[in-house]
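INFO  loader      accepted 1 record
INFO  loader      residues=284
INFO  predictor   begin
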Amino acid sequence: MRPIWKGAITFGLVNIPVQLHSAVQSSERVSFRMLHKDDLSPIRYERVCQKEGEAVPWSEIVKGYEYEKGKYVVLTDEDFKAAAIESSKAIEILDFVSSDEIDPRFFETPYYLVPTKGGERAYALLREAIRQSNTVGIGKITMRSNSHHLVGIRVVGDALVLEIMRFADELVPVETLSFPEANQVRPQELQMAEQLVANLTDAFDPAKYTDDYRENLMRIIRAKMKGKKIAVIEPEEPTSTPVVDLMTRLQESLAQGTKARRSSSGDGTATRSTRRRGSRRKTA
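INFO  predictor   done
INFO  writer      dumping tokens
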């Protein structure tokens, strides 16, 4: 795998040469072309001037910032060059912050930081220091002149993972929306809800969660390729559980879980994780 960036991590006077590799891979996407319904010919899009109604070549297109409705400031290539931040080959860690203090909404895209020759010992040292202190290193990286990012560096197994972070003004404040208060929850309901959560608790296994929509879509595509007709089943509209039925629904959910655990335990030797999985299958 080719690195997408080469440089170094710096903290204090310590310099660690590293390479940046993507930590995620895109699953095979189902792509579509826009076609003319009559003859299935692909549709071509053109850049059309709203005022003249004519197609405009790239050579006559400029970039503009709309500062007021219908009023623009045109920016040239020189303007973008003037605003660009010089590309740096260093990720300077500015602060170490407790991982518990960072809102997960800040994190966006993960990358592996891999040490290059000569940086292995310092890399391991930084990794273990971050692990033992349960912190995240906060810094900035410029991968291209117009690609300046806030980043967090954390430990995942034996790797240091750099995560592109959002800046504070990119988050929507919670206060802009309305949420129910905790005093609406009755203690007995909360106790039963916590018990239900405990019954459904299991170790995280990401492999068992699949993209059902993509699988369904590919099944339909393969069927249509064979000339089969597809039957559409309209889903039922979801409804909120009435407040008066909330306790009843919790009791029924717990009862289903208990019944599932008894049937899955057999002679009583089933493990706790097996009982949980049995409960989940029954309540699904």
